[in-house]
Structures are given as C-alpha cells and as structure tokens.
What does this fold into?
Amino acid sequence: MQKTINFFLFLVVTNFSFSQNIEPLELAKKLLSKVIFEDIEKYSKGEFKGHPNGEDLGEGVKLNFRLLNQTKNIALVNVTIMDSLGKGLDTYLHFEKDSIWKINAFRALAMTGMLEMIKSEFEKFSESEIDSLIISEKDNDHKMFESKEDFKYQLDNIKLTLEIDDNIIKHFNQNKKEFLQLKKKVSKIKFNKKEASYRQINLKEKLESNYENLLLNSITTSFYCDECFEFIIGGMVDNTVGYLYVKDIKNLPKINPSRIIMIREIGNGWYLFKTT
It folds into this structure.
C-alpha cells in the first residue's frame, strides 16, 4: 500500500513540474495573448517584470512568432508586431532556463525614433527643394547630401534600417549576387598587423565602389568573432542592424540581451543581426 501511495505522489509531482515547464515559443505566445497571464511572475526573472504583455498591445494588432535559437539553457523568440495599418516592429524575447524556462529580457532595435523623424522629414522634400538644398550646400564641408542620388541613398538606407526582419532578408536575397561579390572582395583585403582588430573597410577607397544599391553604411571585420565580417546597414550609436558573414559556424557569436540582441540565419554563412 505504501509503495502505491509513493508512486502516486511521484506521478503527481512529476506531472506538476512538467506542466510548469512551458517551452519558450509557447511561453511567448502565452505572454502576448489577450488572455491575462495569471502566473507571469513565475516565468519572469532578471530585468523582465511582466511587461510588455498582451494587455499592452493595441486593437487590431497581429503577431507572428518565430523561434530563432534554443539551446539547453537559453532561447530567443522573435515576435513581429504588425499594427492595423500594416506597419511592423520586430521584438525579441530572451529566455533562460533554471528549473523551468523564464523570460529575462525584452528587446527591439533601440533609438529608432530619431530615424523615424528623419525619414518623415526627408519624405516631405519635393524635387525642387532637394535641388535647392544641394546647391545651397555646394561649398559646405559638412553638407547633408552630395547629390540627388546621395539623398535617395540616405533615405532608402534609413527605410531599410527600420524595416521588419523579413524585408531586410528579402533585400539581401534580391541582391545576393552583389553581396557575394562584395564579400569576396572584402575577404581579400590585407591589413597591416599594427591596425586595430576592429577595422572599418571604406567602400569607396578599398573597394573602389560605394555599392549604393546594397544600402550599406559600412563594412567591418567583426568584433564578435574571428574571420567574420559585418555589413552594417545602419542604426543609432551602437544600436545597429546589418548582415553578418561567418566563415565557420563554430565562430558564430552568442546572442546576449546586453549586446547582440538577435541573430537569424539567412543561409550559406550569412545572418541578419542586431546589436544594442
């Protein structure tokens, strides 16, 4: 009889523990559901205090969930939030596991408000206003634009920086041939050993082209991994978005809510990444 009772208690405890260990993808969906998440404190740790959650989202919002990474102890879920007007924002839920999976950080590309303002102002310029601005700044050493083409490049660069991840990857795939050619040229550049380990490659000087149609802001050897290159699109300060090329997957950097907030595989050594 005692053995039967002990076995029954074991099943109860086991089933209770199992029921509490919600997988990261399902936990993200539960967090952002319109149904109130009663036990949210049990699944939160570190800086995450239960917000944002489903109650913070407006009406007509659509969510798309994607598991980007999951190992034994950490996980990353991408949540794309689309409003009723079709404007999207990509966010990232970082998870850690102790006895159960818990949310420890919520991230998105930071400091985009200034870029939104610049984009809005740029889009108001008429063709004649752009011409007048370029002429008025002709002899200015700190001019905003060199030409109409430069104006268009800067506007399109900001737009791509603010795009949802699916569209940033789409841009890469649409220009894949040129990205591969660019990577090949970058890989052949020889650096003096005295140069710093984090080296910015000047597109015009070292590559004899600005590759404007790729909408890149700069290219650097990676601070985060060996034999890697960062093809930076843009951002503000150290909050950046770009493409990462990793020659050997073993060198792929680890995600971290304090630095690399997301990495998403594109294919053949290429990744989309964002920092903070």
Q: What stands out?
A: The CA atoms of residues 189 and 206 lie 8 Å apart. Confidence is low (pLDDT under 50) at residues 7-19.
